[in-house]
Amino acid sequence: MQWIASERVRKSVIPVAFWFLSLAGGGLLFAYAASREDPVIMLGQASGLIVYVRNLWLIYKHRETDQVPAAQ
For the chain, how are helix, strand and coil distributed in percent, rounded to 5? Predict the structure, then answer.
């Protein structure tokens, strides 16, 4: 639901720290699944990592547009 809400407004609606912690946790779980050679867990974590990276991208993009001065 959060991903859909963020996509609708074209920016992340959750604090940045949440996404970095989620990315770190998802990366660790993906590494664990890879070490066990478990494709099901790897696929599940990979899909979550895509969402986390996308939300961080939306945050970066939104901040970048906020910092650009308006043309006069």
Answer: 80, 0, 20
